[in-house]
Design goal:
- The protein has a domain of 78 residues.
- 48% of the residues lie in helices and 7% in strands.
- The protein contains 4 helices and 2 strands; from the N terminus they run H-H-E-E-H-H.
- It starts with 7 loop residues before the first helix and ends in a 5-residue tail after the last helix.
- The structure holds zinc ion.
- Zinc ion (ZN) binds next to helix 3.
Length: 113
């Protein structure tokens, strides 16, 4: 976890004994999977409304969700105003992804999936 802690409030929450119990309950509720990409394995529990602005929701199950480290760090970057996905770049990536399978199919002459 090389991520920089950007606020002290969430640090206080994360260190508490109560957090350990709540975190476990959230992961169990979410079936031990990332709610965004469905990946199982190492999970982090994310505050939908940040502790910084909504400290009263810090231990609220409805304000929490299980995320894998990569979805979690993407979320956090967006929240603190970094790493906004560029829409033009996203559109380009989609286009490339759409083109690729066709090229492969033509080359291999396999039936359409
Ligand atoms: Zn994920």
């Amino acid at each position: 976890m090389g991520m920089k802690r950007h606020d002290r409030h969430s640090q206080a929450v994360i260190r508490s004994a109560r957090w350990k119990a709540v975190r476990l309950a959230v992961k169990r509720r979410d079936g031990w999977k990332c709610v965004e990409c469905g990946k199982a394995g190492r999970l982090e529990v994310h505050h939908v409304q940040p502790v910084r602005t909504h400290p009263e929701l810090a231990f609220e199950l409805s304000n929490l969700k299980s995320l894998c480290p990569s979805c979690h760090s993407r979320r956090t970057r967006i929240e603190i105003g970094l790493g906004q996905e560029n829409p033009a770049r996203e559109a380009w990536k989609r286009l490339v992804a759409e083109l690729q399978p066709k090229t492969l199919q033509a080359a291999k002459d396999t039936p359409h999936a």
